[in-house]
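We emphasize that the prediction below concerns an isolated chain of 721 residues; any contacts that depend on oligomerization or on bound cofactors are therefore not represented. The input was used exactly as deposited, without trimming of termini.
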Amino acid sequence: MTTFKRSIASFLALVVLIGTAPGARAADAPPAPTAAPDGSQHGEQVDATAPTPPRLSYADGDVSFWRPGGEDWAPAQANTPLAPGDQLYTGNRGNLELQLDSRGFVRAWGDSQLGVENHEPGFLQLKVAAGHVSLDLRAIESARTVEIDTPGAAFTIDRPGYYRVDVTADRTSFITRRGGTATMTPAGGQSVVIATSEQVVVGGGAEPVQTFVAPELDVWDRWNYARTEALVDTVSARYTPAGVSGIDDLDQHGTWRVVPEYGSVWVPQGVAADWAPYTTGRWIWDPRFGWSWVDVAPWGWAPYHYGRWVNLNSVWAWAPGPVVVRPVYAPALVAFFGAPGIRVAVGAPFVSWVALGWGEPCVPWWGRPGFVGHAWWGGWGGPRVVNNVVIDRTTVVNVTNINVYRNVGVRNAVVAVRPDRFGRGPVGEARIRSVDTRQLEPVHGAVDLRPDRASFAAAGGRGVRPPDTVLARPVVATRAPVTRALPHEAEGRGPGPRIVAPPRPNEVGQAGSRPPLGQSPLERARPPRAPRFESKQRPDAAPPATRAPQVQPPPQVQRPPQVQRGPEAQRAPEAPAARRAPADVPRQPRREAVDQPGGQPRAVERPAAPVPQPRQVERPATPAPQPRTIERPAAPAPQPRPAAPAPPPRTVERPAAPQPRIEAPRQQPRALPGEPANRLYPGGRVERPTSRGPESRPLAQPRPAREPAGGRASAPERERR
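Result of the prediction step, given as a token string:
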């Protein structure tokens, strides 16, 4: 009897996984969402060796990008995932931002060269060969280290804080703020600890290492503070897992809805009527993840690397699914199709893809051999759906039997291009419109398409190339940069770094002995003391003299810009200009500006405003008042009024009948699915996201807000001196 029951169960499981047709087909709506108990991935192989890549989240002005294997420096494209070996450069009026996670940012000012040297689980290695770079880390995972390699020293960071690096040809400046500390390892010296609110200058003087109290914030620092505050405070954080980058862009470019089938979904705004996911961007070659999708939409990061896409009454919506403990990045979440015998009308083969639907597995085309070609639900906390059937999380799935994808049946959802156009440019320019979806055959494994030199950049054209002196400038590092085998021979990316021993906790010393504040000839001038407040006046103190009002001088020329959370973010402040600076501030010929990085803002001399003096007005002597006699005139006698003449007859003209105005029919706004997800308080403000614990939570209705304890960072705390 037991054997018979086992046979029946095996037969039913086989029916579920075999499907009903050999080609890819659309399916009906799957059941309602069911949250995973803890977000774990039972019974599946997870490629845990690949960390989430940093994201180029902001590029303004002249920002160029180069990846080993590419043709040359190309314009940088936002939403590009960065890999070891990638190099970025900002022109004189350029600014860029890298997003490490939802609370970690790296930004570069004008004339800065920034590179990714290494990226492993728990370790990120960046190179700064020139310019001005800031790291605003509001949170950092335990056992995670960020290393900044510069020409003067390697700086190791393992705790939250604000950090600033300024590099010129002969000196390197490093500043710690907001509770941050770092370890410095110079080229020929012992590792030392940099305390919070401290500045260290390497090279360029009589002493190889000089230490100072951190200078006042300049316009670049203030802009960084304000921008981070706006990015970490987002409504979309309540619907997505913690740590997902790019969710701040969802607030300004779409709306959250709650639908019974999928819970909370996000609907993009401003897309065309025939728009579909994975159509407004291009495929690029990533040395670690293979073919990766880069979308040109400002919100095009999280919806293309996490969650699933669903279509509700011809409206596309992104469904992140129930929140899991740890999200897992994917280069794209699509199903690829193609077969040698399948051809379009013109007789050429093509490759196509479609966005994965609710609960459908991804079949990886990247990673190690034991990971490629196996059904994978990495980071997905909802139900698992195979061929439109919900399966158990422990069920072993034969990937060759997956042939039903719900979004295949949605109009315009399948995207197809010729193989020789894949990864060579924007998809919209090469897309094939006529595709017979009944003959699509899913690809169960690697995508057999080789990249060429145009596949290593996300934008076409020529970018600003750094000066040769910057490219040839070596840096100090604790690890050698990662090199990978490429389909094409890569050009040299500059000289190799000077490798030094990494800092060891028991061998790290303190920064050089610095005399007390104000007693060093290299120290900045001490600011004047604030006046003391005394409750009682001294007996012999004279009363204050009355002073004429003084005209206040106008404010400083340059003010910290306000960060705007909109599609067109306000530009960062322009790069600094050359000026006479103390020994700890790097010099670089640039355009004129008031504030300088790493030092005190330059005082602008203005002519002294004249103090207004009270004007003496001479008044004539007032004569004594004389009594006045008022004589009233006599009233005139009434005169007879002549009769009014009869008015002539008037001709009344009738206005012409107005012509009927023909108005063009107004386009009816599309009806959004479900109900609004963002509930408002009676006062009208949006409730703050609730604090999330390590457990998954349902998405039917968001709970009332609670102020998280130690969760979201508030305004920057006062600097500790």
